[in-house]
Amino acid sequence: SINEISKGNMAVELDMHGYSELHKITDSFNQMIEVIQNQESSRQEFVSNVSHELKTPLASMKVLSDSLLSQEGMPEEIYREFLGDITTEIERMTQIINDLLSMVKLDQNTANIIISNISINDLIEQLLKRLRPIAGKRNIELIFESFRPVMADVDEVKLSMALNNLIENAIKYNYDDGWVKVTLNADHKFFYVTVQDSGVGIPEDSLDSVFERFFRVDKARSRATGGTGLGLAITRSVILLHRGSIKVYSKEKEGTTFTVRIPLNYIQ
Ligand code: ADP
């Protein structure tokens, strides 16, 4: 009968409905498992990167101290030179550990963010004042262009660290006699900081990776300039903590521009 046919239809419909519900649940479980697996593998990669980064200075210290121990009657200058090299390696390890600690603190959510309404112009002026002697050594000009005075709710210490990393990089990865230009602007909602340099640039295929922990285009160059590969990861975390965003544009051998956008008012 018609009735039976429609009952049958309903059963089929119900079955299909139940099946697709089940399918949805399985799909979201699979997605969750994938997320956890990705997190686990990036955690493992992180631990192995940290270990590697710390092993490198340890290995050089071992070579240096072994040779100090094995050779008797070494001239004092050589002795001192080796000790100086060991100190350099210790400083490097300290830098890596400090960067790691900053990063761990930033990862512990927003609990320890200290917001105050400050002048971003002053903050940038202070950073540039501190970096000018370093840039001056390679005759790199630091320029600041502010389109308006900007007051914003920020964590002063953390934002200083974030912008400092960008300006320091713009100096580090620059040519002698080059320039770094910092601009500051704002609209009614956000302030914008750009850090532009006339430096070596970043290859296009590396642009997506520069914010990853320990990523460096040129490990040797980064190490020689005291880089840990953590600077931009820290900068990005700080900016995200302020609910902001950061972007990078670059052309090899011409230069790089980082643009930062942060809300003027911090909303919990
Ligand atoms: P590092 O401690 O090596 O400087 P960062 O996380 O600060 O680490 O930067 C990651 C990598 O991105 C650097 O090693 C460098 O290769 C590249 N990079 C960052 N900033 C610049 C820049 N302004 N110009 C060219 N390359 C840059």
Architecture overview:
This protein has 268 residues and is of the alpha+beta class. The protein contains 6 helices and 7 strands. The strands form 2 sheets. It has a 5-stranded mixed beta sheet with strand order 2-4-5-7-6, covered by helices on one side. A two-stranded antiparallel sheet has the order 1-3. Strand 4 (179-186) and strand 5 form a beta hairpin. The longest helix is centred in the first third of the chain and has 69 residues, at 2-70. Adenosine-5'-diphosphate binds at residues 165, 169-170, 173, 197, 199-202, 210, 215-218, 222, 227-233, 256. One of its GO terms (cellular component) is plasma membrane. It is a multi-pass membrane protein.
Describe this structure in a few short sentences.
Residues 49-266 form the Histidine kinase domain. The protein is 57% helix and 17% strand. With 268 residues, the protein is of the alpha+beta class.
How would you summarize the topology of this molecule?
Blueprint (H helix, E strand, L loop, with lengths): L1 H69 L5 H32 L8 E4 H17 L4 E6 L4 E4 L1 H17 L6 E8 L3 E8 L21 H6 L6 H11 L3 E7 L3 E9 L5
Parallel strand pairs: 2-4
Antiparallel strand pairs: 1-3, 4-5, 5-7, 6-7
Helix pairs in contact: 1-2, 2-6, 3-4, 4-6
The chain binds adenosine-5'-diphosphate.
Q: What characteristics describe this protein?
A:
7 strands; alpha+beta; two-stranded antiparallel sheet; binds adenosine-5'-diphosphate; 57% helix; membrane; 268 residues; ATP binding
Strand content: 15-25%
From the N-terminal CA to the C-terminal CA, the straight-line distance is 64 Å
With strands numbered from the N-terminus, the spatial order across the biggest sheet is: 2-4-5-7-6
Q: How many strands appear in the DSSP assignment?
A: 7
Order of helices and strands: HHEHEEHEEHHEE
Helix content: 55-70%
Tally the helices: 6
Shape: globular
- Based on secondary structure, the structural category is alpha+beta
Please state the CA-atom Rg, rounded to the nearest Å.
26 Å
Low-confidence stretches: none
Subcellular location: Cell membrane
Membrane topology: Multi-pass membrane protein
Keywords: ATP-binding, Cell membrane, Kinase, Membrane, Nucleotide-binding, Phosphoprotein, Transferase, Transmembrane, Transmembrane helix, Two-component regulatory system
Domain HAMP: 1-41
